[in-house]
Design a protein that fits this description.
The complex is a heterodimer of chains A (about 500) and B (about 250). Chain A is an alpha+beta fold and about 500 residues long. Chain A folds into two domains: about 1-285, ABC transporter involved in vitamin B12 uptake, BtuC, CATH 1.10.3470.10; about 350-504, Ferrous iron transport protein A (FeoA) (SH3 type barrels), CATH 2.30.30.90. Helices cover about 60% and strands about 10% of the residues of chain A. With about 250 residues, chain B is of the alpha/beta class. Chain B has a single domain, classed as P-loop containing nucleotide triphosphate hydrolases (Rossmann fold). Helix content of chain B is about 30%, strand content about 25%. Chain B contains eight helices and ten strands. Chain B has helices spanning about 45-55, 95-100, 115-130, 145-155, 175-190, 200-205, 225, 230-235; strands at about 10-20, 20-30, 35-40, 60-65, 70, 80, 160-165, 195, 210-215, 215-220. Classes of the chains: A alpha+beta (about 500), B alpha/beta (about 250). Chains A and B meet through helix 8, helix 9 and helix 11 of A and strand 6 of B. Bound molecules: adenosine-5'-triphosphate and magnesium ion. Adenosine-5'-triphosphate binds near residues 18, 23, 41, 45 and 47 of chain B. Adenosine-5'-triphosphate binds near residues 43, 47 and 84 of chain B.
């Protein structure tokens, strides 16, 4: 217990907690836009490119007011460096053959190098060493740093909250933003300046690399957990603070660098989140893949139900079969038999769907045999290809084969049940079976106008040798040829079909 | 209030080029208020550019565009635009509802929050495109046609006087097509001026009051009867035109 309370008796620990949390919150909220706008590399570049600005700012301030207030100099120098970075990146990337990422890489390493030169040349005058720039010193926070980060932190978070809508619409839909008079460039620049501000406030605490980490990692983690931007921001802030708390305890216990420990904690949190996140996480993905019922299992089972075969004859493992049957019940393809709740039978929809799969198998098989394929191979090919049962393809085969009523084994081929207006083409009279009732809804060709619109009819017989369809209408019997039957768009009127039942 | 005698859109000698290549050449036309107008022409004809120049998104080489007698910049807020291809990141953490509410941003300065009227308008817009049951969906979890409808709802929520739709019928299913065409009718009834870039010659006559045929130059502007003539279309589309029998809509 003492290990938890003892550190709080040291002022440096309290200051590190408070200062670190302020920076973490501001970084996390700003970081959400950086992640969403895919600006991570710019954030990284920006933080490094500040070095010459910070160095020159320190030198100038020190020369003006020796030993005095240097934070102002640092801030100003950093802002100037940020603007130079941002302007030169966009200017460079306007040149053909220099992409934005190349421009970023060139500009920031160049600026960073000049910072290194300045810092090492004036080493004796500058109170910042490179190591400090990289690692910061979270336990050595001065009151000046504390105030600076509090002011900058509230400025950044306040700006984002007040102008939330503007930042969001420019990030989400720049075209719409422009059409209502918002300028993407202005918003982009504000974000860049805020990155620079945060870096200045945070570098002395956690160093430049950890600042980038605090900007990106908590926001990226939160993005895995939510679909709403406000929640993403709150969650990211919480994750940032949690990284600071666990990181500081950790560094206290094992006596490691504070900044390093904070970012290590952030990284560890990210890894845990990556594994457990509900939708986008690794476990969720694995479970989803496992729960996935292959569509072919469902279709094979549908056929077995339709043909009233024993389910054991379907060659899939029992556990997968049970999963498939549960899913089919959920989707309304199967339903419990009245009175025997454990037994499953095909629902109306399941029956139609099964008939459709069977028709697919028969037409594929028929098609291959017609093409001269050996019947045994044709059957096997159809067993695989029956799962491609797009209506366009099937109706085409059906037409090519002359709308056969039975397959090559003499087994009846079911007719199509209905045209699904959005997904499937029209249902034509040629796809119906004797005994079906229907109503005319349209014509594909003029020669089909022998029946008036909305005229109900009963399909009496189908003569395959003479290739005509005999229908009964209110005006008496009519005989249609193949062309007419193909061109009459009809709606099938419901009837009562026997539904098969099998226990599971 | 806007005077009804002022044309909604007035272009004079509009000329636009990209890198020295002229795309729109000397286009002059007046579109009266309350019309539903189709813009037609082959690929690369400059249809999208015509729309963008009404939005002030492309620099003009010459000529003027006036909306209700005002310059494009002064008429912002009177125009809503649904682009052909937006630059949308579909994984962005916003819901259908958030997107439609963006249509109200222009009426909501940063220091104010949305009013119940804003919410009511967005609600209505969602219902108009039949997407109300999807309001809490993240925007990426919709089909392409549903996404299209959400963006249409956002344009409606903007309550603009001019609606610019760049190929709203491209790649949508029959249900979405019906929803969009119902919207055209409803917008017209509210006195809005609607410009629609459209490719299907067969449905053009039933959707539009006027049709603009453009291929860099303005080829024709008038009622569907006057504009959709075989010889004229053949001139614009060249050999690419399928000959259409306008009376029955069937191929000849
Ligand atoms: N940003 C651009 N820079 C250079 N050329 C462009 C640009 N945008 C369009 N163009 C060119 O201008 C011409 C007109 O383009 P526009 O997008 O207006 O055509 P469109 O009629 O909308 O075509 P589509 O039917 O394919 O949408 C095309 O030749 C195109 O290549
Ligand atoms: Mg276009």
């Amino acid at each position: 217990m003492n290990a938890f309370f003892e550190p709080w008796t040291h002022a440096y620990f309290v200051k590190a907690m408070v200062g670190g949390s302020i920076i973490a919150i501001a970084c996390a909220v700003l970081g959400c836009y950086i992640v969403l706008r895919k600006m991570a590399f710019i954030g990284d570049a920006m933080s490094h490119a500040l070095l010459p600005g910070v160095g020159i700012g320190y030198l100038v301030m020190n020369a003006l007011i020796p030993g005095g207030f240097t934070a102002g100099g640092l801030l100003l120098g950093a802002l100037i460096a940020a603007v130079i970075t941002s302007v030169s990146i966009s200017a460079l990337s306007r040149i053909q053959r220099i992409n934005e990422d190349a421009a970023i890489g060139i500009v920031y390493t160049g600026l960073f190098a000049s910072g290194v030169v300045i810092l090492t040349r004036y080493q004796q005058h500058i109170n910042i060493d490179l190591n400090h720039f990289f690692q910061g010193d979270v336990y050595g926070i001065s009151w000046e740093d504390m105030w600076l980060s509090a002011v900058i932190g509230s400025l950044v978070v306040g700006t984002i909250i007040l102008f939330y809508r503007y930042f969001t619409i420019v990030s989400f839909d720049p075209i719409m933003a422009r059409s209502i008079g918002l300028h993407a460039g202005f918003i982009h620049t504000s974000l860049t300046i805020m990155i620079a501000l945060i870096c200045v406030a945070g570098i002395s605490m956690v160093g430049v690399i950890m600042i980038v980490g605090l900007l990106i990692t908590p926001a990226a983690l939160a993005y895995l957990f939510t679909d709403r931007l406000p929640r993403m921001m709150i969650l990211a802030a919480a994750m940032g603070v949690l990284s600071v708390i666990t990181g500081l305890y950790f560094s206290e216990w094992i006596n490691a660098s504070g900044g390093g420990a904070i970012m290590f904690a952030g990284f560890a949190l990210f890894l845990i989140g990556l594994i457990v996140a509900p939708n986008h996480g690794l476990i969720a993905g694995w479970l989803r893949r496992r729960r996935l019922v292959p569509i072919t299992d469902i279709e094979d089972l549908l056929k077995a139900f339709y043909e009233k075969r024993d389910l054991e004859s379907v060659a899939i493992p029992v556990s997968r079969r049970h999963r498939a049957i549960r899913k089919m019940t959920m989707e309304g393809l199967l339903e419990p038999r009245v009175g025997k709740e454990r037994e499953r039978i095909l629902s109306r929809r399941g029956y139609d769907e099964a008939a459709h799969i069977l028709r697919s198998h028969q037409l594929w098989e028929h098609h291959f045999i017609e093409q001269g394929m050996d019947p045994h191979r044709a059957h096997e090919a159809a067993e695989t290809l029956e799962h491609l049962h797009d209506r366009m393809v099937l109706d085409r085969f059906d037409d090519e084969l002359g709308h056969p009523q039975t397959d090559t084994h003499g087994i009846p081929i079911p007719g199509e049940r209905e045209a699904d207006s959005d997904e499937y083409p029209d249902l034509t009279l040629s796809l119906l079976r004797p005994g079906d009732r229907g109503r005319v809804t349209g014509y594909l060709r003029d020669n089909a106008r022998c029946l008036p619109l909305r005229e109900p009819f009963l399909l009496e017989t189908r003569d395959e040798t003479g290739d005509f369809w005999q229908i009964m209408t209110s005006a008496g019997p009519i005989r249609l040829n193949h062309e007419q039957a193909d061109a009459l768009v009809v709606e099938r009127l419901p009837d009562t079909d026997p539904v098969s039942g099998i226990s599971v | 209030m806007i005077l009804t005698t002022v044309p909604a859109i007035a272009m004079e000698h509009l000329t636009v080029s990209y890198g020295g290549k002229p795309v729109l050449i000397d286009i002059s036309l007046n579109i009266p208020q309350g019309m539903v107008v189709g813009i037609m022409g082959p690929n690369g004809a400059g249809k999208s550019t015509l729309i963008k120049s009404i939005m002030g998104f492309v620099p003009r080489d010459f000529g003027t565009v006036r909306l209700f007698g005002k310059t494009v910049d002064n008429a912002r807020g009177h125009v809503a635009y649904v682009p052909q291809r937006g630059q949308i990141d579909w994984q962005f953490p916003v819901t259908v509802w958030d997107v439609v509410m963006m249509g109200r941003y222009q009426y909501t300065p940063w220091y104010r929050s949305f009013t119940s009227r804003d919410r009511h308008i967005a609600e209505q817009a969602l219902a108009d495109v039949r997407m109300d049951s999807f309001r809490n969906r993240q925007i990426g979890q919709l089909s392409g046609g549903q996404q299209q409808r959400v963006f249409m709802a956002r344009a409606l929520a903007q309550q603009a006087d001019i609606l610019l739709l760049d190929e709203p019928f491209a790649g949508v299913d029959a249900a979405t097509e019906r929803a969009i065409s119902a919207l055209l009718t409803a917008s017209k009834a509210q006195g809005k001026t609607v410009l629609v870039v459209h490719h299907d010659l067969e449905t053009a006559a039933e959707f539009f009051d006027r049709i603009i045929i453009v291929n860099r130059r303005l080829f024709a502007y008038g009622t569907p009867r006057d504009v959709l003539k075989d010889d004229l279309l053949a001139g614009v589309y060249g050999g690419a035109l399928r000959k259409i029998n306008w009376n029955t809509g069937a191929d000849t």
